[in-house]
Specification:
The chain is mainly α. It has 10 helices and no strands. It has helices spanning about 5-45, 45-55, 55-60, 65-90, 95-115, 115-125, 135-160, 170-185, 190-195, 200-215. The termini are far apart.
């Protein structure tokens, strides 16, 4: 009896199922993104997200373990945009110091052009997820490491071309630059208030802080 090989058909069905799952997950993330941007993490409920999609919460949980995992899926979208901006800035310069400067300024451009993503990304970094092995958290960590690597590469290039101090630790310096920049973006209301008393804005603080950080590592 002739045996028919149906492995190709099974593969097509599998790929179609995967694409459908990705499409549905994106739809859920779209709805969650609107809620998180408008109300923030704490004030957004899974019921609200489900209502937007005309789904039950149970249906959403087939794609995302919990609200936190869904929040990280939105953060991943933001960090991908930031990653692209950093790569573009890195590639546009030859001098190591200028590469560091431009990649750090990519954070500023990201903040100005995508303030909602910036806020979600900053808050996501401050969260202490119970399960670090969920897909979106792992993806966020992976791209974070790529972004940190871009700044590390910039610093190493600067050390070689003489534009950046050779006595500083590359990794610790890159981490300092990233974390300090993110902290400035999440400045408290009291900080913004005091800036206003002196006729200054958050933009002024960001600009001044970035200049100070770059000068501190330059030769």
């Amino acid at each position: 009896m002739l045996k028919i090989d149906n492995s190709g058909g099974d593969l097509l069905v599998s790929n179609r199922t995967k694409r459908e799952r990705e499409r549905k997950a994106n739809e859920i993330t779209d709805a969650a993104e609107k809620c998180f941007f408008k109300k923030g993490y704490d004030k957004t409920t899974m019921d609200e997200i489900a209502a937007q999609l005309e789904l039950t919460k149970t249906a959403i949980y087939r794609y995302f373990e919990n609200k936190e995992e869904l929040y990280f899926s939105v953060a991943v979208r933001g960090v991908k945009i930031l990653n692209k901006m950093m790569i573009e800035e890195f590639s546009s310069q030859n001098n190591g110091r200028e590469k560091v400067l431009k990649t750090c300024y990519a954070f500023k451009k990201f903040y100005k052009q995508f303030p909602d993503y910036c806020r979600v990304l900053t808050e996501a970094h401050d969260r202490d997820p119970e399960f670090m092995n969920t897909p979106h958290i792992q993806e966020l960590i992976k791209i974070d490491q790529q972004n940190l690597g871009i700044i590390c590469d910039s610093i190493d290039i600067g050390k070689k071309d003489g534009s950046i101090r050779e006595d500083i630790n590359t990794f610790l310096t890159a981490l300092y630059l990233v974390k300090s920049t993110l902290n400035i973006f999440s400045s408290s209301l009291s900080t913004i208030y005091y800036l206003g008393l002196f006729g200054m804005s958050k933009e002024d603080l960001i600009e001044h802080s970035l200049d100070l950080m770059i000068h501190s590592i330059s030769k």
